[in-house]
Amino acid sequence: MSRLPQWLGGLGSGLVRLGERLEARKATAEARPAAGPTSVTGPTPGAAPTSVATPTPVPTPVSASAAAPPSGAGAAPAAGPVPAAEPVATLPAPAAQAAPGARPDPVAAVPWGVRVAAEVGWRLLVLAGTLWVLMRVISAVRLVVLAFVAGLLITALLQPTVALLKRRGVPRGLATALTFLSGFVVMGLVGWFVVWQVTENLDDLSKQVQHGITELKRWLLNSPFHVTQGQINNIADKLSEAIGTSTKDITSAGIEGVQVIIEVLTGILLAMFSTLFLLYDGPRIWQWLLKLVPEAAREGVAGAGPRAWATLTAYVRGTVIVALIDAIFIGIGLYFLKVPMYVPLAVFIFLFAFIPLVGAVVSGALAVVVALVTRDVFTAAMVLVVVLAVQQIEGHVLQPFILGRAVRVHPLAVVLAVAAGSMTAGIGGAVVAVPLVAVTNTVVGYLRAYAKEETPPKVSS
Question: Among 99, 176, 221, 415, which is least packed, fewest CB within 10 Å?
């Protein structure tokens, strides 16, 4: 019992020291700037942890048995120091809060879909601007571009002959000269034959046209359409008036015809020179063009070039074969139906076949009109049947078999390409539009496969 006052005195002094430390900690906390409550669950993301003063250890009560000295001891010892408690974990500093009225980042405020649309939009605008500038440049030098493209198409047609002669041991220069001369001689003879046939049959054709118009009037009067003589005369008067008002335009067109002839001759000469040098120095010209490409993209372009040339060669050769078959069979049909000028019409069908879809319609309509005004309605209907039958065989049998998958282009792309080419450069633009689309399709497909590190299909010889 004599030791109980000492134990109580030690406990009281410990409680006093604990109260003093709590008061000191409270004063320290009040001295800090107000920054929100402190969480004990963990640090706030984005905030740096700040050390907090370690609290004073809390004394724990000591049992009587533990506080009693061993037996035989003398005077009771004084109350010893209270053992220290375990330190408290360091608390992080409170997260910094945004000042009232602060605006968020503008980039983060824009929705993701709007950002993607904006990124795609400005790239499309750049491509459209580049295409517009390119079309303006092409329009400014349209004659040169068309002549070079025509030379490229003729080269694609004649180059296999040059390669065949070189394999037979003929020198490159001689093989190029023989192929060049024979090719242009054949094309010149075809053109001369068409002009000769038209001029020889022009007088007879005019008489047959007048007779056909008379027969057409008689047929319309007796037809179930109930056409009267007054309506026919009204149509004839309107046609005469239209021709009379267009006299000035026809005269001005005749005056401009000299300039057109000069441009045509210039284009023919440019196409001939382009064909000659492409046949002779085509591989070296291609190697020189590859040096203009950046080195990082040179390998891909070097692989796309031969495939583009194979596509162009397949297109030209296939189109020539298909056009020749169309001209022969439609010409035979015109011959058996006794349509005048069947040979020039067959040549026109061959030439217009180089304009996909549109050319077949125009040449077939021309044959039907000639049959209508020179023969009769039944003959024109039979010509229409022959033309449609040959075109159906061409579209479903000849083109898939001859052209194959190398130059397969969707019909919508063909129509749009022909329309855009004709609006840009007339008939020449319509002729070169489809092979340009076919080559572009091949190049884009190869470069896409090359970018994915895939092995593109080999070029078929």
Answer: 99
What is d(CA 365, CA 383) in angstroms, rounded to the nearest whole number?
Answer: 9
Contact assessment for residue 195 and residue 343, using Cβ atoms and an 8 Å cutoff: no
Please give the mean pLDDT across all residues of the chain. 75
Looking at the predicted structure, is the pLDDT value of residue 350 above 50? yes
Can you tell me whether residue 155 is helix, strand or coil? helix
Distance CA 163, CA 185 (A): 20
CB 354 within 8 A of CB 421: no
Instruction: Check if the beta carbon of residue 330 is closer than 8 Å to that of residue 346.
Output: yes
Output the CA angle 288-294-297, nearest 5 degrees: 105
Q: How many alpha carbons lie under 13 Å from residue 105 in its C-beta half-sphere? A: 3
Tell me if 337 sits within 8 A of 382, measured CB to CB: yes
Greater pLDDT, 399 or 346: 346
Instruction: Give pTM, 2 decimals.
Output: 0.61
The CA dihedral of 34, 37, 41, 42, to the nearest 10 degrees, is -30
Provide the sign of the torsion angle of the four alpha carbons 364, 370, 373, 374, taken in this order: negative
Burial bucket for residue 447 (CB in 10 Å: 0-12, 13-18, 19+):
middle
